[in-house]
Amino acid sequence: MMTAKRPAKIHRVLIANRGEIAVRVIRGCRRLGIESVAVYSDADRAALHVRMADWAYGLGAPPPEESYLNIPKILEAARAAKADAIHPGYGFLAENARFAERVAEAGLIWIGPPPHAISTMGDKIAARTLMIKAGAPVVPGSDGPITDAKSALAQAEKAGFPIVIKAVAGGGGKGMRVVREAADWQPSIDAARREAKGAFADDRVYWEKYLEKPRHVEIQILADRNGRAISLNERECSIQRRHQKVIEESPSVAVNPDLRARMGKAAIAAAESCGYVGAGTVEFLLDTDGKFYFLEMNTRLQVEHPVTEWVTGVDLVAEQLRIAGDDEWNPPSLSHAPFGHAIQFRIYAEDPQNNFLPSPGTISTYSEPQGPGVRVDSGVYQGSEIPIFYDPMVAKLIVWGRDRSEAVAAGNAALEEFHIDGIATTIDFHRQIIHHPEFIAGNTTTDFIARHFKSTEVHADGDEPLQQAVAVAAALYTRRRVGQATRVPSDGNGQTTRYSGWLVDGRRRGTDRWPVRF
Ligand code: ADP
Q1: How does pLDDT run across 488-514, given as a tens digit for each residue?
Q2: Residues lining ligand 1, CB < 6 A?
Q3: What are the residue ranges spanned by the domains of the chain?
Q4: Among 4, 59, 101, 103, who pairs with 67 as Cys (CB 3.0-4.6 Å)?
Q5: Coil, helix or strand for 39?
Q6: Active-site residue (options: 51, 215, 300, 322)
Q7: CA 329, CA 314: separation in Å to the nearest integer?
Q8: Which ranges of 136-256 would DSSP assign to H, the alpha helix?
Q9: What CATH class does 140-210 carry?
Q10: What number is the average pLDDT over the span 30-51?
């Protein structure tokens, strides 16, 4: 027997996603002897996740609404592929409660939390209210969405500037505006509303006191439907650009065993308050006095889950599959302290020299670092096309060392060894960050990049003309590109394809499908 015990109820999982996370879930399935079904848009026919899965099913045109966000098409693919479960990855439909419901209605296992947990935690006001009830510390802020800007300002002024306006349905740092004086209150609300409406089709916003120089520290939890729950240490994700994570690490230099235990307890209380099942993350801000405040709960696997996997030895995808697919779940045993130190670098197809403009195109050279303490979770290979339609993350580099300084050294060496040509990437930007004396010293607060890399920061406030230019450029690029994407060899759109060289004829899985040249 080459695989660990397969969950009793899951034989074949459809992964409603693309890129590195689809590849990651395929690997998790394979280790447990579970078959995987990939779905793909026309822009992703030749993508790595499609090549790696046991089965693959075309969804149609590249825009997300017609492919990775199209619930009927995904359910139809699951039916045709005879999948018995759906893993949503992160992004796309992962935090869509309606999708979770539809999956269950179709008689499939949803590898994620119950729909009501998703919808409660997806509404930041509902989540705050629940946390206050559960006795967890939350950032001081409004009780509900802002309806009357004037009275909200009066309340906010009592809490004191700076204040941050946030989208109730927020995610990815969208719909967020920092306000430092009363004169900016109304314009900031208007701008946040516009952005929230565009991103989430929900223009409700609320306010929180804006903490200065906090660290972003989050706790990974696992919970099952029988009420068992464990926390798996913290991740620090303070290195952010425009409120989006860039580098993540575990453990945090600012967390000692006592604080870890208290934050773990608060995270489990958050999970219990909403009947959480599966893998989830409770995010906190940690202030300079060591006080922590609930920020939000992400009801899915996080991009940065590998750093936790490295310092705990737990395969989080396998645990998700076990929790969803077995009646009884035995939590993995954990030693109390994190084992060594892990750091993750998100490698994006973006040009740091040019305001981090997305840099889609064909990867002409792709050579990953290897060696002790190096893991790469990637969704690409040499010859891959980075489409304009989706998040431009290419790969995640995760490094490990016995302590933080070893991990930083491993990161430096691995970043140097990572070669990607044909598109711009953020590899060199990461190297600059980890060479910075303040990073090396562990002085990592959420304003790190804004403070030390001023030239790379385009502030959200007042850069709308630039954002419009970026949108126009992206639209023009899309028009030029669509024809090319569909020229990739077709295997019959809408057909389920048995895709395994290994199972069919004993050759190594996938080698018969590798392109000679693109
Ligand atoms: P999103 O869901 O859009 O990612 P979060 O609430 O998770 O938004 O916040 C993202 C980041 O924005 C945080 O990690 C932090 O850097 C910053 N942030 C959010 N709220 C506050 C706050 N009240 N004070 C200071 N920083 C904040």
Answers
A1: 233 333 333 333 322 222 222 333 333
A2: 139, 164, 170-174, 208-211, 214, 216, 240, 243, 283, 285, 295-296, 446
A3: 12-111, 125-138+212-338, 140-210
A4: 59
A5: strand
A6: 300
A7: 14
A8: 149-159, 185-200
A9: alpha beta
A10: 98
